[in-house]
Amino acid sequence: MGGPLQGVRVVACSTAQAGTVPYMLMADLGAEVIKIEVPEGGDTSRGSTVFPGLPSTYFETNNRGVKSVTLNLKTREGREILHKLVASAEIFGQNFRPGAAEKNGFGYEELRKINPRLVYVSVSGYGPKGPHASLPGTDSMAQALGGIAQAYSTPGQPLKTGIVSVADETCAILAFGGALAALTHARATGVGQKVDCSLLGGQIRLMGWTLTTAMWRNLDPVTGQARVTGTAERPGLSASFNDRDGKPLVLQLNGARHWKQAMTALGFYETLERAGFGNLGVIIGSEERRETLLRLLDELFARGLRDDWVARLRAADIVSAPINTLLEASNDPDVVANGYVTEVDYPKYGKRLKVHGTPWQFSETPARIGIAPELGAHNDEVLRELGYSEEQIGDLRARKVI
């Protein structure tokens, strides 16, 4: 049985990460995704992070399982082919700067005339409105504006954006969901629509209830080693500590009962009670007491080993985990067991490589992990399906329309 999106045709004139990952996810789930690329050069990200004897990590991660068709959209014939594909598609995606899609013949108003049922997904940096709507956007820009830099900040240190493209990926996942929501509506009513997503909008959503709290209090959250939440009556704590070898772990709990339960399991409770921290609620609203408690916990955790601390907390039904590096995360037993990281064969390179798996597990229609296509690999197949003869395809290729 095919994936849950089998039978859905997607056409994407998109590049980079936020503009391609939504459709890669659809391809994983069985959709036919036709990626439109520039003849000869293709998506410029094909050349990003290429190791000897391997394909681009960037392009592979973002474009696996799709079909590559090259079209020169500056030519009349190229636009005609795109319009024929759109006529048979349910979803179209693009992430060009505002105005560029219209100039190149694939703006929303033009494509909806060809296919009124079409779901048209547009990904931008800042969103379709506002003073900077026409500016180009990047992951770092959205991280900078969206508040995530504060989430992992250290008091007294300048805010920094991170090395992982969280803005791109968050926007991509929201675009994926938005497209499928609009597709449900289109299938029920016969009416398509435009769905706008942005890097900045995704970051704002990612800030979740912490942003709501900051807005309601009109005060930025306390940052650093610990996240202190709640009230004195029902305090919450999420904090990281290092063991005696410097290996970090995290624990998270809510309420006085869980506090005592956790500290007792660790063998810390009597020490903490003598120091005046038998009740976690005493640190709510007091920076001095919060800092004193964290220093004391630092000393206590530094007396043992991470694996032991985590095991004790988990045995007491307290949420705890080692803090992984990216490489450690890729080998985490739960990550591997659930297929969140898997392996795929690359016949061209004679290798089997680790790649992202799928975040979903469907009981009846499992996802299938593909590999990214060679540039223009599906030109002939797709054009034949549109009714072009071999002679016509050869002519289009000779004139560099494809």
Please give a handful of descriptors for the protein shown:
alpha/beta, six-stranded parallel sheet, four-stranded antiparallel sheet, 18 helices, 40% helix
Question: Can you put this structure into words, describing what you see?
Answer:
The chain is 40% helix and 17% strand. The chain has 402 residues and is of the alpha/beta class. The protein has a 6-stranded parallel beta sheet, with helices on both faces. Strand 2 (32-37), helix 2 (57-63) and strand 3 form a beta-alpha-beta unit. The longest helix has 24 residues, at 166-189. The two termini are 33 Å apart.
Spatial order of strands in the largest sheet: 3-2-1-4-5-6
From N to C, what is the helix and strand string?
EHEHEHEHHEHHHEHHEEEHHHHEHHEEHH
Main sheet record:
6 strands, parallel
Q: Which secondary-structure class do the elements indicate?
A: alpha/beta
- The end-to-end span amounts to 33 Å
Low-confidence stretches: none
The shape, in one word, is elongated
Please tell me the overall pLDDT.
Answer: 96
Helix content: 25-40%
> DSSP helix count?
18
- Please give the oligomerization state of what you see: single chain
Measured by DSSP, the beta-strand proportion falls in 15-25%
What's the alpha carbon Rg, rounded to whole Å? 26 Å
Q: How many β-strands, per DSSP?
A: 12
